Please model this.
Amino acid sequence: MQFNVRPYVCGALGRIDTAILGKLTAAGPRVLPALQSPEAALFSSTPLPPYHRAGNTFAFSWGERKPSSADDRAADWMAVAETYETPGLIGDGESVTLHTGALGLVDVYFVRHGDAVYFSSLIQPLLSLAPIEIDWSAWASILQVTFPLGEATPYTGVKRLPGSSALVWRYGRLATERRLPRWLRTEPYESWISPGEIVELLGEVYAGYEGRKLLVPVSGGYDSRLLAGVAVARGMDVESWTTSPDDGTDTDIAFARAITRELDIPHRVITQDAAAYPGDAAEVARRLEYLTPHHAWYAPFAKEVHGAGRILVDGLAGGPLLKNFMVSGAALEARTQAERSAAVLSSLSLGAPSQPFLSKAAAQWMEETVREQFAAATSMFHGHRAELPLSVLHTRTVRGIARSVVNLVGPEASFAAPFIDPRFFDAALSVGVARKHQGRFYREVLHAANPRVAALPSTNVVKQPLRRVPLRSTAAPARNYSHRMLETVVRRVPTLLSDEMHEVIAGGPDALTRYNGWNDRFWVRGLVLFGLWLSDFENDLSDLAPPF
Model:
């Protein structure tokens, strides 16, 4: 990992033990001191000047965007978090505050020792400060919903600071501070914003990138064609790439060719090699620190982006904001809070596999654990008018989907996420979920942006593939890799798996060919991720006794 555009950072606040801090700084990438005092320390892989410094006050940030020295929001960490979606460290003379972004896209992990917190933008260096012990609740959500929930990581001793949160050292004490983000403090009631106004707002967001070379990946769906179309309409320097999401079709590529041809922008297809899949899957899993089984397909694309010399424009959050993505009819029609939460969690969770993958005890415990975690992670949205999209944004979008741009494209290359710009985010969130039902509002937005492009086939609508193509993730190299990882799960935690799954694994790599359905494939990927984690930490894990 090369920290070209976003630095690796670590540090501490509170009653700092210099020996522990020394272990942390030695355990990760090489760092330089940015701030050192008895109560606050900050180190960075590249020089990190403060955006504010006067007397004994200071303010640092390390996201993709950051405040300027003249920004009067520097005094309030939440204003910085909301405006720039960046974590940071702020001292006001009486207290020191370590904060996240409002959504928490750029992770902050921490370990607590006594009256001090030691933090890092990566999990791995913190493992030098805490025993490596499995957090079964985190793995329950990684397996069932494909990402962890709340503050959980795969390790009990390492926690993640959620979005809109801060750790504060004040008057000799450490405290956790949670704030309501802007979109919860002022509920965005229906303002009847028009599709044309949404397009104009997106154009205003692009104004911040004038004169920059943009790379807008086009996948054939709604988000990418909207982003590409508005950028082209503004006369920006746009190039587009497409790769296969390894879904068994080349529909994305075929549709993207039509879209980029209509927009008259250069288009390139990034090919993928089945033989390289095991290496890609393992590399992505380790780089994402075993947090999600997503994104192995994205590895060849991300590597090419690193050398492109262009800002990657990503459609992050477009689905939940504009087309009710992951919001089911059952969630819209729910009459009680319990029904609504259950419906959203059901949409986010993997469905039942074609045969039991987990033992009955494991499956029951996992379902109960994930339900409790999801309730805690989304409780602040209950009763809010935009509860449904916000529940998706603060869970799946942030902890699962965002990893591709935040941790695979960045920190080597810059990315832009126009949909989370405060102006656009608030306007899109104000549109009621009923107007967005079944993508109706999004289609109106696309038509307002470019009627010809809006009329082209979309992967959001057309489900039949143009042609079937072999899956990298189920080809022979992938089966051999997956089987080795599943054998590790059998050896280390046999009670996790069902008798049926034990039989399949005993049948060898080719027995996995029965799992060709989307749902089954993701169950396999999650268990393979767990197997890789068990294999990588073979010599560090002692107690793997499960709670079921």
Summary: The chain has three domains: 9-179, 195-322+385-454, 472-536. Residues 120 and 149 are 19 Å apart (CA to CA). The chain has a mean pLDDT of 94. The first strand starts at residue 9 and ends at 14.
